[in-house]
Specification:
This protein is mainly α. Helix content is 60%, strand content 0%. The radius of gyration is 14 Å and the shape is elongated.
């Protein structure tokens, strides 16, 4: 299996947005969507699109998933469990082309 090692400069650190405490599900969803969007952008910047596109679909998915997990652990080590899995799954689906419409 191919491992993820970026040769590009390190992307800015993901930080939780300042704001009121998460007291409503809507606020949680907004924060989650912002985090997913930022991760997506950072992965696009870090991954070599030509190299990823040339891989077989199953390998491409594994490489992008590994990169997403590495990025999330590095940038937001406090995110774990089901939340981490959901974030990684959404970001990977969007990058490899299995967005909400295809799912």
């Amino acid at each position: 299996m191919t491992s993820f090692h970026s040769s590009r400069p390190q992307a800015p650190t993901l930080r939780p947005t300042a704001g009121p405490a998460r007291t409503t599900p809507g606020r949680y969803n907004e924060d989650m969507e912002q985090l997913i969007f930022r991760m997506h952008q950072m992965l696009i910047d870090e991954l070599d699109a030509d190299q990823i596109s040339a891989m077989p679909a199953d390998e491409r998915r594994k490489v992008v998933e590994q990169a997403a997990e590495t990025l999330l652990r590095r940038e937001m080590p406090g995110v774990g469990g089901i939340t981490r899995d959901q974030i990684v799954s959404r970001v990977v689906d969007e990058i490899v082309g299995l967005g909400p419409i295809d799912a």
